[in-house]
Write a structure and sequence with these properties.
The chain is of the alpha+beta class. It is built from 10 helices and 23 strands. Helix 1 packs across helix 2. The termini are far apart.
Length: 414
């Protein structure tokens, strides 16, 4: 390959060449199971589109996806059809280039971890939740949308197994939720370009030979980033406000971290904790990783990663050097926030069929690799959540240090 890839005029490349080039900018630390391979197969389409648009507007066409061990698919159809996977960090600049790709759809989702001295009674929690849902709850004239029964959002309680010298309470709760209030233009320009008429009107529609992206430039990008920060703050406050009601007898905030957000103009964390404690948006150096409801969750102390030793062990160092990405990768600051979706029956991606701007992924089946499953909308597939392999891979890669194991006691999903 060589460093000549950086001097290519990519608008002159064929579709196949564009996709091959984009694949070089995927740095995967995933489990390399069938779902991980689906993510990478789709991600090259999104990156190729980013590269074409970057070159068109005079930016360096080097958008990169750095996946965390929970690398997976996105069940949001718009995001997936835009060529984007999930579980990692998407980068397309130094952080100051006023170019934002809206198809990433930041939703400001995060998890609040609180410590308790006594185990709460589930029945009392249910009554309090019912009270909350039966009344309108506001923050600064914004009506709070209860989304803790939607998708994988939840309220869980755990017993703490302390694995460090940090003084932690004997019980923990986790509240997982986002900011659906800000997706349309009710309270501003909106986060989602497919939900907000205002946002779509100010965005630029870029039709590339590999698909369509919506972007913002200059002052529009600045306005959007400021709105994103407002939504991120609201999401954090919303989880805290709910916790204050449910656990009004007292709790200790361990952390309240987002894992799906726009960090700056050029960095999007797509379902991954950001362990960059120097960033104003990161409130502590403790981060939760939740798996399935039937197995333990974990608290990590984050680290700056990936180290050059890790890159070498993962056979990524040489490519990182050729693409001049060592600085970015050694400051990736990624850590799984969960196990990620897993399609147990998918073994590998054998081919991608394209018809009328749609991608059909030809996959082999794990129990019979001679049989094929051809998939367009991955959101329609039956999935499970991965287990401890994600945590083990995180330790292997030295992405963080485990400080506590949280043994599940009960989960509330209403």
């Amino acid at each position: 390959m060589g460093s000549s890839i950086l001097s290519q005029n990519i608008s002159d490349l064929s579709r196949a060449e564009l996709l091959d080039r984009a694949s070089q900018f995927i740095f995967s630390t995933g489990l390399n199971d069938g779902t991980s391979r689906l993510c990478k197969a789709n991600m090259k389409y999104g990156l190729a589109q980013f590269h074409l648009i970057q070159e068109k507007y005079g930016f360096d066409p080097r958008a990169v996806f750095i996946s965390s061990p929970d690398e997976t698919i996105s069940r949001n159809k718009f995001r997936w059809n835009s060529g984007l996977g999930y579980g990692g960090r998407l980068n397309w600049g130094e952080g100051n280039d006023k170019l934002i790709f809206l198809n990433t759809k930041p939703n400001c989702c995060g998890i609040l971890v609180g410590g308790l001295e006594e185990l709460p009674d589930p029945y009392n929690l249910i009554k309090k939740i019912d009270t909350i849902k039966s009344h309108e709850l506001y923050h600064e004239n914004i009506l709070i949308d209860w989304d803790y029964g939607v998708s994988n959002h939840f309220i869980n309680c755990f017993e703490t197994k302390n694995l460090s010298d940090i003084d932690l309470p004997p019980y923990m709760f986790l509240i997982h939720g986002s900011a659906p209030e800000f997706r349309d233009d009710t309270y501003g320009i909106g986060l989602y370009v497919d939900k907000s008429k205002t946002l779509k009107e100010i965005s630029k529609e870029e039709n590339t030979k590999l698909g369509k992206q919506y972007i913002l430039l200059d002052t529009d990008a600045e306005d959007y980033l400021n709105f994103n920060k407002k939504a991120l703050e609201f999401s954090n406050i919303k989880r805290k406000k709910i916790a204050d009601i449910l656990f009004d007898y007292g709790y200790k905030t361990i952390c309240n971290q987002s894992h799906q957000f726009l960090k700056d103009y050029n960095n999007m964390y797509l379902g991954s904790n950001c362990t960059d404690v120097k960033c104003d948006l990161i409130q502590s150096d403790i981060f939760p990783t939740t798996l399935r409801a039937d197995i333990s969750a974990y608290l990590f102390r984050g680290k700056k990663n990936l180290s050059e030793r890790t890159l070498k062990n993962q056979n990524l160092l040489e490519r990182a050097e050729e693409l001049e990405l060592i600085e970015l990768l050694t400051h990736a600051c990624i850590l799984p926030h969960g196990g990620g979706y897993e399609f147990k029956d998918v073994e590998d991606v054998l081919d991608i069929l394209e018809y009328k701007d749609q991608r059909y992924f030809v996959t082999s089946l794990s129990k019979n690799t001679s049989r094929l499953k051809i998939v367009r909308n991955v959101s329609e597939l039956q999935f499970e959540y991965r287990g401890r392999d994600v945590v083990l891979k995180s330790i292997q890669l030295d992405l963080g240090e485990i400080i506590a194991r949280l043994n599940p006691l009960f989960s509330l999903k209403l």
